[in-house]
């Protein structure tokens, strides 16, 4: 009887010890998971948006205790792939339409955090000083990709140079939707990255802001800058699974800060501000 009692007591002690070890391990794992991430890697395309991260976002995050590493990309493919595979915690380079299409095509789950000030499309000319001077039959270089083409046509319509079919989605409008061409403009489709070079050879050129800045053009030299819809403005993007992480909240707060806007006003002249920022400043 004594032996059975001792055996039972031994088994209880063994199982109790194992359970305690299990709880300790579980507690340790839980603690590790709940520990806030303080090292961030943010990707951005070379030029104005990597500058924006370095000058306007990184310093604010560092004040919050983060160590921030900025990775620059020269293309629009790798930043999202690097984000999805965990090499990046966030990226800044793309607008809403591109993000959604890329995510669908590559089966990724991406979400925006906040829209940021963005370099607008502009109409540039070395021949005319204003759009009022544009002569009939002038040649205008336009982007040959659908997204930037739509943006160009909207600028031309906003300034009375063309009239578009009102029934067409403004985000997908194309040359075939031009119903009136007041100045009989001659459209010359060009790859977007080559448009800055055409300013010297054509009467007018529609140049996306990022390519204009890469070519050392001054946005404020444009005859007209687009009234950009927020869908075309760049945004900070993260993996959807991270949306509720503390670092995402801190990223958003950094962009919403007055310190961020002050840097934008000083260092990024001509950048169009998103709707949320304009409404805050009313």
UniProtKB/TrEMBL annotation:
Transmembrane segments: none annotated. SUPFAM superfamilies: Periplasmic binding protein-like II. It is a lipid-anchor. Pfam families: Lipoprotein_9 (PF03180). Residues 1-19 form the signal peptide. One of its GO terms (cellular component) is membrane. InterPro entries: Lipoprotein_NlpA. Keywords: Lipoprotein, Membrane, Palmitate, Signal. A lipid is attached at residue 21 (S-diacylglycerol cysteine). It comes from the Bacteria. It is found in: Membrane. Gene3D superfamilies: Periplasmic binding protein-like II. Belongs to the nlpA lipoprotein family. This is Lipoprotein. It comes from Geobacillus thermodenitrificans (strain NG80-2).
């Amino acid at each position: 009887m004594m032996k059975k009692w001792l055996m039972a007591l031994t088994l209880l002690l063994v199982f109790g010890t194992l359970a305690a070890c299990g709880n300790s391990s579980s507690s340790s794992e839980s603690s590790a998971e709940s520990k806030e991430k303080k090292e961030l890697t943010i990707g951005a395309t070379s030029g104005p948006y990597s500058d924006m991260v370095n000058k306007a976002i990184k310093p604010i995050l560092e004040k919050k205790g983060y160590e921030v590493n900025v990775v620059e990309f020269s293309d629009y493919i790798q930043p999202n792939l690097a984000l999805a595979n965990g090499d990046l915690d966030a990226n800044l380079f793309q607008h809403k339409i591109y993000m959604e299409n890329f995510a669908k095509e590559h089966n990724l789950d991406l979400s925006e955090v906040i829209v940021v000030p963005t370099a607008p499309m502009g109409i540039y000319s070395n021949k005319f000083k204003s759009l009022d001077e544009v002569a009939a039959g002038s040649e205008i270089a336009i982007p040959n990709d659908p997204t930037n083409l739509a943006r160009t046509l909207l600028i031309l319509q906003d300034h009375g140079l063309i009239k578009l079919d009102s029934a067409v989605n403004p985000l997908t409008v194309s040359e075939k939707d031009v119903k009136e061409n007041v100045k009989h403009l001659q459209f010359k489709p060009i790859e977007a990255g080559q448009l800055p070079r055409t300013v010297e050879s054509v009467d007018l050129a529609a140049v996306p802001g990022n390519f204009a800045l890469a070519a050392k053009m001054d946005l404020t030299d444009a005859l007209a800058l687009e009234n950009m819809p927020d869908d075309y403005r760049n945004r900070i993007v993260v993996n959807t699974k991270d949306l509720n992480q503390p670092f995402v909240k801190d990223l958003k707060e950094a962009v919403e800060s007055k310190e961020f806007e002050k840097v934008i006003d000083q260092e990024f002249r001509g950048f169009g501000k998103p709707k949320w920022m304009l409404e805050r400043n009313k």
